[in-house]
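Collaborator request, handled under Task 6.
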Amino acid sequence: MNSFSTDMQTDSPLIVIAIGGNSLIKDREHMDVLDQYRAAGETSHHIVPIVKKGYRVLVTHGNGPQVGFVLLRSELARDVIHQVPLANCVADTQGSIGLQIAQTLQNEFLRQGMQQEVVALVTQVVVEEQDPSFGEPSKPIGPFMSEEEARQHEFNDGWVIGEDAGRGWRRLVASPTPLEVIEIAAIRGLLQSGALVIAAGGGGVPVVYKPDGTLRPRPAVIDKDAASCLLACELDAEVFIISTDVDKVALNYGTPEQVNIDRMNVAECRRYLDEGHFAPGSMRPKIESALKFLESGGKEVIITQPHKLHAELHAIDGTHIVP
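Structure tokens returned to the collaborator:
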């Protein structure tokens, strides 16, 4: 097998690739674990050439649908076994999705005759105890439902529900702002050793500091793009790729006037954001994270579908956002 030089990887640009949890589920007929493995494998196939090109890579991933599945299973079984707290559901999905991505990446490296260490790390992310999102849940999780189904859960189970960017109804949970990644030193060390690192899955397990400095979990799901942006900024990444379930960012999304955007700068992006083109809980957090990354010194953000990824970053078919 061929292997990359650790020194070359240590000195090469860092690319952060955030894989959307929805992009691991193709449709309502392909939602089970095997289907998600296959989707992760397809994404891994497109990530490996980026590593082969010589870039260092940090992968993060969403878990909106998957954490909702775990939580729903727990609630359906509540008369048989103890329920799983939301923070633990996030940790569970970090482990399971991290395994899917790590294993499919390792298999793809093997197929291409490459030696590359891949490490998936369960990650804790600090949030503020009094973050206003705890009083105003806004993060969609779990499967899409009809309004009738959602209203039944609202009445029977006490769920907070909401319509998700014209695609259906979903359960809403708190989504506090990420402030600090507890494992940042370990992540930095692993990247410096030449490993491809999978971290901050599902935005990381939300935790708060107690007065004595110890940590405790907080029930929420952090937006994965916000946590990925925090990591990208802390680690001085050059490019932040947000892999999602649409080809490009669009104005007037879902209307006859929809216009896809190939390229825009920060000023244009902020104007479109202020005009209300990007839906909360969907494209808006991606755009907000992109702006924060670029305004903190990042060179480029690319928003695209997983299968559009390839080694020539400038030529990726998607939306390119630059300073």
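The cover message to the collaborator said: "Confidence is low (pLDDT under 50) at residues 1-8. The two ends are 40 Å apart (CA to CA). Please let us know whether this matches your experimental observations."
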